[in-house]
Amino acid sequence: MQLAEGGFGNPPQAGNLPYKACLTCYDENSPISMPLRFYNTLSQQVEDFSPARDNTVRMYTCGPTVYDYAHIGNFRTFTFVDILRRWLRASGFVLDHVMNITDVDDKIIRNAVARGQSLDEYTAHYKEAFRADCALLRLETPEHVVPATEHIHQMALAIDRLNAGGHTYSSDGSIYFRIATFPEYGKLSHNDFSGIRAGARVDVDEYEKADARDFALWKAPKQGEFSWDEKIGRGRPGWHIECSVMAIEYLGETLDIHAGGIDLIFPHHENEIAQSESLTGKPFSRFWLHAEFLMVEGQKMSKSLGNYFTLRDILGRGYPPEAVRYLLASVPYRKTLNFTFDGLQSAKTAIERLRNFKLRLETGAFPGGVNEALAERTRAAQSQFDAAMDDDLNTAEALAAMFEYLREVNTAMDAGEMRADNRGAALDFLAHFDSIFAVLQPTAEAGEIGDAEVEERIQARNDAKKARNFALADQIRRKLLEEGVILEDTKTGTRWKRKSS
Ligand code: AMP
Ligand code: ZN
Q1: End-to-end CA gap in the chain
Q2: Residue 367 vs residues 390, 416, 432: alpha-carbon distances, Å
Q3: What is the distance between the alpha carbons of residues 210 and 475, in angstroms, rounded to a whole number?
Q4: pTM of the entire structure?
Q5: pLDDT, tens digit, 9 for 90 and up, residues 294-342
Q6: Which of 77, 101, 139, 239 is the best mutation target for the ligand 1 pocket, counting ligand atoms within 8 Å of the beta carbon and taking the most?
Q7: Quick check: 314 and 75 in contact, CB under 8 A?
Q8: CB atoms within 10 A of CB 194
Q9: pLDDT for 145-157, tens place per residue?
Q10: What is each CA distance from 346 to 55, 199, 431, in whole angstroms?
Q11: What is the spatial distance between Cα 165 and Cα 162, in angstroms, rounded to a whole number?
């Protein structure tokens, strides 16, 4: 399977002392950090988080249905999951994370049949598009990216066990989960289902049609549909069983975290709990985290409303992918986020401010020694950043801590108060910030000159100046400007930045 590989270099997990842990090493006066806390949909409380066993977080997140390109609403949820992953690692945990790829469902079958393609032929293109979009958005690849169609047999076996446990009934060749056999049904969505009609059959695979009824575990094939031949009969799995089976197979009977978009709470996650706990008799997941919607003019961004943009749409309008990432990450995941192009432009501007700040720190000429007040300010800003992230991933507060710091340090640099020995800690803080937000490195556009190339040409220009070949030096500068790179000569060397469009 391409997705798990085709990667974009997840950082190593073991051996690196997590940055947060280092913060407490060097200053005995630094505040004792609050524990990492998440809002748990199951308990409806903010709870302290740590994994149940050893130092490993066993996490399952619901992945895309690959019937079309994902839109940036989908990517809001996947970006939240990425920030979650990165913060868990910064907190010193090792990740064992599974994400499914739903590559068989009603829409996929309908579209594949209409095009006269096999399921694999139809979904291959959208799987690859999803992988490419994730890479552009700098979303780390989970440890296991698992397509449903590679686990059909395990799903059939699980359904067989549910049959044996009396949790199912068959009708017209399909097998349904009997919700009446799971009295705790509703505990995640906090819905009261005491009035449901036992035995009612409704196909809720298309989850907009969610209803408090029994659901299909195994669907008899309709004329001309794809199906698998299993002991339980010919058919294909329903959507919900896919996640239960793959989560348990890779992570064990009880997960530390299960996450997804808020629309999945009911019925999808409720159904996952009913199936999994009926199979194992154990709690399915200790924590349930759900991301709120990306909205457009007050409505959920969705395919069915037609109010969506894919990542390709946005990049086609000239915005860099990291601006999309920044925008999606900037609002805490439990708050709705209204998508606007103004917001995207502000994200782009914010990234430029951060990059220029980094450049100034790297290239500025500062007198020797340390400014103690600034050193203290750096420590305080880091603590604020970490405290915000520990507080249920409050990315807005974390960004506020970074920008307040940026403003103060810029003022200190303007006033000549910055000292050479403050530089390292400031850059470390920026690196820590970027290990989570991942926006500082520009994405080279197709045909755009890369960073290394810019550095090389600056070196060539410096060499030309040394050789007193000023015509060549000017020519290199002009050429860079044509390609969107502005040079600025300072006492300590040449700085450069990209022209903002
Ligand atoms: P799907 O490909 O439809 O299975 O959806 C993939 C993920 O995107 C799920 O976790 C959904 O909850 C999530 N999702 C869909 N629409 C939005 C939206 N407008 N905002 C945030 N998440 C969304
Ligand atoms: Zn799922």
Answers
A1: 38
A2: 36, 9, 25
A3: 65
A4: 0.84
A5: 999 999 999 999 999 999 999 999 999 999 999 999 999 999 999 999 9
A6: 77
A7: no
A8: 8
A9: 999 999 999 999 9
A10: 38, 53, 22
A11: 5
